[in-house]
UniProtKB/TrEMBL annotation, chain B:
Gene this chain is encoded by: metI
Name this protein carries in UniProt: Methionine ABC transporter permease
Keyword annotations of the record: Cell membrane, Membrane, Transmembrane, Transmembrane helix, Transport
Every ABC transmembrane type-1 domain range: 18-216
Compartment(s) where it occurs, according to its Swiss-Prot or TrEMBL record: Cell membrane
Organism in which the protein naturally occurs: Lentzea flava
Membrane-protein topology: Multi-pass membrane protein
InterPro entries tied to this protein: AA_ABC_Transporter_Permease, MetI-like, MetI-like_sf
Length: 332, 227
């Protein structure tokens, strides 16, 4: 749907983007994360067509939109709905008036404009605030109106730049819900730039990690969490505490990542049963990525067929990340 | 000692002079706004970080604007005589004063407008840019509409300043309140006229200021949250 190819951008000799390549499938949510100064904002501004990259391409449906001018540029901008970082609403216009702005730019006539604004207010759950001015809305409500405005002209891509910074956790949830609903109900492709892994945890299908202007990790969130070395897994999965006393009484100790209801619920008891081993969870925990339960457990196993049990867990869809013998095994 | 001017005569002097002042100031304000607002918009658009940054154009515009603002009004009044004659067909009287008043006020309004427009937050402007709005639409719906209260106040400030400038209109026979105070009051030692004109000017400017403040407030749609 939207692809970013080898994008570079420098400011006064400092490279903000060093060949960024990304691919967002239609109807999915990609989270672009990374530390401050990684180039997230620059990438967002390039995709929002507020900044022209030095080289590379940004394609929406295959068409490069980085080199456009005039009315073609304005038309391309309408394809990309932008939720800018920070307060961006017109303070002299009502919530409804703000949402109408892109429709005015697109030349949509009055009656259609009003009905479209009504739909969007409904989508973001603020129908009762149609006539309110931004100063009368809370930060979260203003941000939801900004999302509604970004969606007004039916863009195929929605770009949200730090949509939850400066919001408290509860309000953050309501804004993320709105972004998720935009994808689910309008089928829009969402690109969300954020420093908050919580955003990735809650709504992202894919994640791209940016560091020093480069993509150092890019893939499906649920795939990356199974990869022990990935930044995504260490940021999103429950920590496994080192607990030598607990671990010393087992033949085998291993870390395992389980993804999905079936794996989390049934895999471990089944393994214990099949191979007749004692299998205990000695560390780690359970979390949720979007709707999917994901666990990272440290397992302690006792029994002759412990290795086979671990192997079977791996084949059955669990990711065994660290398999090590217990102290007794080392001694023997 | 000469007897003081009777009050009814003072009033009729004041009424006539007020009419002249309002005429000169009113028309020149309209002209100054008509040219000054676009000048301010142009200055802001071409400024660094504006929607159409253009250092060369910005510098030239800025230079002309500041040149106009640095000119003492009394100099402008006489320097523009030939231009005035070309435009209004004569170089004396109230109508003739309008030309230098307007010319003097255009750069004044331009700078005020640019300063006000530059206060509109860049995030708000960029958000409008990302909606695919044309520059003209952004100028109208975002820059000007968002700062309308401040712009109305700025026009109010301009009117008061022009009332001040118009006091020099007497030099080319423009009449008005300032001229009345100087010629009839000060130069002819008529204290009653002098001080009644001064008092009336104070009342008049206060009323005008009040009217513009009210209009600015009425145009301000922000309703501060009263949680």
């Amino acid at each position: 749907m939207i692809t970013v190819e080898n994008l570079t951008k420098s400011f006064q000799g400092v490279n903000a983007l060093n060949g960024v390549t990304l691919d967002v499938e239609a109807g999915t949510v990609l989270g672009v994360v990374g530390p401050s100064g990684a180039g997230k904002s620059t990438l967002a501004r390039c995709v929002a067509l507020l900044e022209r990259p030095d080289s590379g391409a940004i394609r929406v449906d295959g068409t490069d939109i980085t080199a456009l001018d005039g009315s073609a540029l304005r038309a391309a901008r309408r394809q990309i709905g932008v939720v800018p970082q920070g307060d961006s609403l017109l303070r002299q216009r009502t919530a409804a008036g703000n949402i109408a702005l892109p429709l005015e730019s697109a030349g949509v006539p009055g009656p259609q404009r009003r009905s479209r604004v009504g739909e969007l207010l409904d989508l973001v759950g603020l129908t009762d605030k149609a006539a309110a001015y931004p100063d009368q809305l809370s930060g979260g409500q203003r941000q939801r109106i900004a999302v509604a405005r970004a969606l007004a002209a039916n863009p195929s891509v929605l770009l949200a730049d730090e949509p939850t910074s400066a919001l408290d956790p509860e309000t953050t949830g309501s804004v993320l819900t709105v972004l998720d609903r935009a994808r689910a109900e309008l089928g829009v492709t969402v690109l969300v730039v954020t420093h908050d892994m919580g955003v990735v945890r809650k709504i992202c299908d894919d994640v791209a990690v940016l560091e020093q202007g480069r993509v150092v990790e890019h893939g499906k969130v649920l795939d990356l969490v199974s990869d022990a070395g990935s930044r995504t897994s260490s940021a999103l999965l429950p920590a496994v505490d080192l607990n030598p006393i607990n671990e010393s009484s087992y033949d085998r100790v291993a870390d395992v990542v389980l993804v999905g209801f079936a794996a989390v619920g049934a895999l471990l008891p089944e393994a214990a049963h099949r191979f007749g081993v004692e299998l205990n969870i000695v560390g780690g925990g359970l979390t949720r990525l979007g709707e999917t339960p994901v666990a990272r457990f440290r397992l302690g196993l006792n029994g002759e067929r412990s290795d086979s049990a671990l192997e079977w867990i791996g084949e059955a869809g669990g990711a065994v990340q660290r398999s090590l013998k217990g102290p007794q095994g080392v001694a023997a | 000692m000469r007897s003081a001017t009777p009050w009814p005569d003072v009033v009729s002097y004041l009424v006539e002079a007020t009419g002249e002042t309002l005429y000169m100031v009113g028309v020149s304000t309209v002209i100054a706004t008509a040219f000054g607002v676009p000048l301010g918009v142009w200055l802001q658009l071409t400024a660094k970080g504006g929607l159409r940054p253009n250092p060369a154009v910005h510098r030239v515009l800025g230079f002309i604007t500041d040149l106009g603002r640095s000119m003492p009004f009394i100099v402008l009044l006489v320097a523009l005589t030939s231009v005035t004659r070309l435009i209004v067909g004569g170089s004396i009287g109230s109508t003739a004063v309008i030309v230098p008043l307007a010319v003097g006020a255009i750069p004044f309004v331009g700078r005020l407008v640019q300063n006000i427009l530059s206060e509109v937050h860049v995030t708000v402007v960029e958000a409008a840019v990302t909606t695919g709005a044309s520059t003209l639409r952004i100028v109208r719906s975002v820059l000007i509409r968002e700062s309308l209260p401040a712009l109305i106040n700025a026009i109010g400030v301009t009117v008061i300043a022009l009332i001040g400038y118009s006091a020099m209109a007497g030099v080319i026979g423009g009449g008005g309140l300032g001229d009345l105070a100087i010629r009839e009051g000060y130069q002819r030692f008529n204290d009653r006229i002098l001080w009644s004109t001064v008092a009336w000017l104070a009342v008049l400017t206060t009323l005008i200021q009040l009217a513009f403040t009210r209009a600015a407030r009425a145009s301000d749609r922000r309703r501060h949250a009263s949680v």
